[in-house]
Amino acid sequence: MSPYDGQDLQLESKVKKATERISENIHIIGNEPSLAFYRLQEHVRKALPPMVEKRVEVSKLHAELQGRCYDVEYAVSAVKGIGKSEESFERTRELLRNALFFKQQLKYTESRKSQNSVYKRLSAHITLDLPDLPELSETLRETASSLMNHARTATNHNPEGSQKND
Fold it and tell me: pTM value?
């Protein structure tokens, strides 16, 4: 054997190791994208369904939120409309005050008329119920009523006459 044979064996083993490493690296580099795509596919398969569920949930929440926003906008516009109607409420309040004042005036006028009528007070006290003579009590009421009417017409037609006699 020659001295080069030992070196050849050594060189051959080094070359063999180097070519194996190069072949392994080429194989890894060639398969690396497919491994990355496999990992990516695995991740998508696990992560996509929950993401789709969350997206559907977010869409539902968005629709609900939009509906509630419309409700709030409608309520705000209603409140602003009430604020604009303040003038109408003030007019209504004033009309109610006037109506109450006129009612009080009418009540006062009615009470003054009833206080001035002596005949009215007299007829109010004549409430005799005579069981034997029912026509008499009715006649007394009619007489009191006619006297009252006569007194009214006299004061309405001749209001100055009472002042001239004084």
Answer: 0.35
Rounded CA-CA distance 133/153 in Å is 31
**CA of 112: how far to CAs of 1, 101, 130, in Å?**
158, 16, 32
Q: How many CB atoms lie within 10 A of CB 91?
A: 10
Residues constituting the chain: 166
C-alpha 116/C-alpha 148 separation (Å) is 11
User: Helices then strands (H, E): number in the chain?
Assistant: 5, 0
Domain boundaries defined on the chain: 12-84, 117-157
Average pLDDT, rounded, for the chain? 78
Q: 129: pLDDT confidence band, cut at 50, 70 and 90?
A: low
Whole-number Å distance between alpha carbons of 152 and 158:
10
**Distance from C-alpha of 14 to C-alpha of 49, rounded to nearest angstrom:** 52
Closest CA to 114 of 19, 54, 85, 106: 106
User: Which pLDDT tens digit goes with each residue over 3-46?
Assistant: 556 678 888 899 999 999 999 888 887 777 777 788 888 999 99
